[in-house]
Model the fold of this input.
Amino acid sequence: MNHFWLIVCMALVTFVPRALPAAFIEQMRFNRTMERFLSYLPYTAMAALIFPAVFYVDPNRLEIGMIGALVALVLAWRKMSVIVVVMAAVFSNVLLYLW
Amino acid sequence: MRKEHFFAGVKAALPVIVGYVPVAFAYAILAGEAGLSLRDNVLMSVMVFAGASQIMATGMVIQGASAVAIVAATFLLNLRHFIMSTYVMHHLKETPVGLRLLAAFGVTDESFALFSVAKAEYRSVWYLYGMVMVTYLSWVGGTIVGALTSAIMPTVLSNAMGIALYAMFIGLLVPNIGRESRVALLVLATGLINVLLMQMMASSWAMIAATLLGAALGLVIIDDEPKEGLE
Done:
């Protein structure tokens, strides 16, 4: 299989899971419990995306991810805008690499 | 109304650029090393639009993995978007199905996360389109520049930008947790569940299972009224 068809197949298997809910959401009935379940998904999905991967942004230097996450945490806690949080975390890591 | 939502989405998605561009560069350079032509290199970003899986797939091409194995691994790694798309589409039930399907192409970790923290009145397909325009263009644009120039980005900067998307998730999540200690507990517990599950299964499965188990745990430990997303 050449690269082109590999890419087409990858595109298909990536799009189908994204598209199925778009096509069939009206057929899906959600009771109160399901509604609550759905409402927790952003918290839990983001939690699973962050932990533990954030500690391994640089697998050779775990402090890079830890300090970046800490900077983001403190600024987010102080309700800074997301772009400020992102820039500050990146900047803290630039400093760590230049140290 | 449409315009207003669209541009609000554009604005909300701007932080994603910082995260996507260095990853797109990294992907494009790896794809070049894997022997993909310039066309195929860019085409993968245009058609697949899922960063982690593209990097994994090109890595597997370099290792000489079979096409079936690569496609299967891609499916598994991107299966989490089914859950995220279900969440997003649940808020777009009034939107015509054609517009929803177009939007579904743009459901990524980042657009899902941004959508979920958006003010309830902004949670429309046009807001999603605005966000996806920014995320898609920065992904495809980053790939093109990376593939053409082999991206001479200073190593320090590209390494440091690896934290960007995690910082964004933290920046979205923390203000929404606020003083709700039960929700903070849920987030920490889900992270812990993910760490434990990763010892037992592939990390793609672990992430899906942790997300679902976490939400189920939320039913038990959080007993307030159902809320519209994170707001």
Remarks:
- Chain B touches chain A through 99 residues (CB under 8 Å).
- Chain B has a mean pLDDT of 93.
- The radius of gyration of chain B is 18 Å.
- Residues 27 and 55 of chain B are 5 Å apart (CA to CA).
